[in-house]
Amino acid sequence: MSYIDIVPIGEVEETVLSFLKQSIFQTFKIQTRIRNRPFDLSLAYDPVRDQYNSSGLLLELINEPPPETLKILGVTELDLFIPIFTFLFGEAQLNGIGALVSAHRLHNQFYGISGNRELLESRLLKEGIHELGHTFGLIHCFTLKCVMKSSTYVEEIDQKSIQFCKSCEQEVLHWRNGRSISLK
Ligand SMILES: [Zn+2]
Ligand SMILES: [Zn+2]
Q1: Taking the model in full, what pTM does it have?
Q2: How far, in Å, from the CA of 89 to the mean position of ligand 1?
Q3: CATH entry 3.40.1360.10 includes domain 3-139
């Protein structure tokens, strides 16, 4: 059995993780599970920016994965950055095992608007699928509603759908068939 592991980094609500587990299974048709493991968050923390280095967390995330793990999606509430960007919604290894997504700037509250749970979950799911998509070899797509469209602002996340366009979906299918991953 092969899994997409959803791994919380720091405190993440159980209901959010379960929502992602179900929805990501529906998207990729690959068994998905929540896997807890310890993180040394201090390694990635930048006290000057008061943010966490995304690439550092990603490296820690993919360190020594279990043999049955196919892909890893790290989920965090921490605010992520890489040196050339003020912030990131997420990061992933193209064709690799690991992807990372942050809910920090997906909350309405971050923008001074009252919270909306459904919207938060939908944004997190879109970005989670997007980052995982990169690990399946997908690059950014220019199809209007495709989830692989790149987003710099939450408004752009809200404009795209949670789905792959036909061409991106074909690539994911192709990847899965190449490894004959069964659902048993
Ligand atoms: Zn991307
Ligand atoms: Zn696409």
Answers
A1: 0.95
A2: 9
A3: no
